[in-house]
Structures are given as C-alpha cells and as structure tokens.
Design goal:
There is one protein chain. By secondary structure, the chain is an alpha/beta fold. The protein has 2 domains: 1-54, 2,3-Dihydroxybiphenyl 1,2-Dioxygenase, domain 1 (Roll); 56-129, 2,3-Dihydroxybiphenyl 1,2-Dioxygenase, domain 1. It has helices spanning 15-25, 75-84, 117-126, and strands at 8-12, 29-34, 37-42, 45-51, 66-69, 89-91, 99-103, 109-113. A 4-stranded mixed beta sheet has the order 1-4-3-2, with helices on one face. A 4-stranded mixed beta sheet has the order 5-8-7-6, covered by helices on one side. Strand 6 (89-91) and strand 7 (99-103) form a beta hairpin. The longest helix has 11 residues, at 15-25. Keywords: Metal-binding, Transferase.
Length: 145
C-alpha cells in the first residue's frame, strides 16, 4: 500500500543554474550535489535534480505542474522576489487560495499555493466543478465517467 510521495526528480539541462534557482530563489534546502545531480529538501519533500542534456526546455502544453505550499503571510514577498528575478509566469490563478504559477529554468511548470486539500474541497463543496462528486465514504466503489 502506498503511503505518500517519496521523491520528485526533475531533468535539468544546466545543473548549476537549476541548483541556484531552487536553493537561492525558491529557498529550498540543498542537501547534496554530485557531478550529475543534486538533492534538495523541504519538510515532506525530497527533490532530485538530474542532469539530462536531452531535456527539452519548452514547457509542455498540458496542465501538469508541481505545487509547493506557502503561508499566506509569505506569499506576497515570495511572488515579488520571483517577479523581480524575471521568472516567467505561465498561468493566472483560477481557483481558491492564492497561487503563483511560474516556470523553472528548464520550463518545468511550478506553483506556489496558499491552501491545502481540505480548503480546496471546502471551496468545491460551495461551488463544485461541472460533474464533481465527493467521496466521504472511502468504501464506495468509484467509477469515473
């Protein structure tokens, strides 16, 4: 049985540039580096940057992205730091809670989000997405159409 997300590995084309972005700009703790990679961490997150010269740095056209938690009090300062560094934004926020959507140097889509699953579900109960169903009974047999 799965118990959580173990780690996230992102392919990068310039390891030093990516380490600087994640460590200094996003302020994620640098734990280790080696010739072709780095480990960084936040509470509950193990992030691996893996050098891959074949990585295509164009952002994907789909909505796939990785979201980080941020406290509401720190959100405005964080957004201003990224905007001052000319980090590219890729989307406007369209959901509950403050969010800032941005790209890393290799075009990975990232988000800083104020809120959690409980706050999202509470907002969705008030204004559900089209066709949305809630499963409070975890023994329910779920069928997605």
């Amino acid at each position: 049985m799965l118990t959580g997300l173990n780690h996230l590995t992102l392919a990068v084309t310039d390891l030093n540039r990516s380490v600087a972005f994640y460590q200094h700009l996003l302020q994620i703790r640098l734990d280790a580096t080696w010739e072709n990679g780095a480990y960084l961490s936040l509470p509950g997150l193990w992030l691996c940057l893996s050098l891959d010269p074949l990585r295509q740095s164009e952002p994907a056209a789909d909505y796939t992205h990785y979201a980080f938690n941020i406290d509401a009090a720190n959100f405005p300062v964080f957004v201003e730091r990224l905007r001052s560094a000319h980090v590219q934004e890729w989307r406007d926020n369209r959901s509950e809670g403050a969010s800032f959507y941005f790209l890393d140097p290799d075009g990975h889509k990232l988000e800083a989000h104020v809120g959690d699953l409980a706050s999202r579900l509470a907002a969705c109960r008030e204004r559900p997405y089209a066709g949305m169903q809630f499963f409070d009974d975890q023994s329910a047999d779920i069928s997605v159409t």
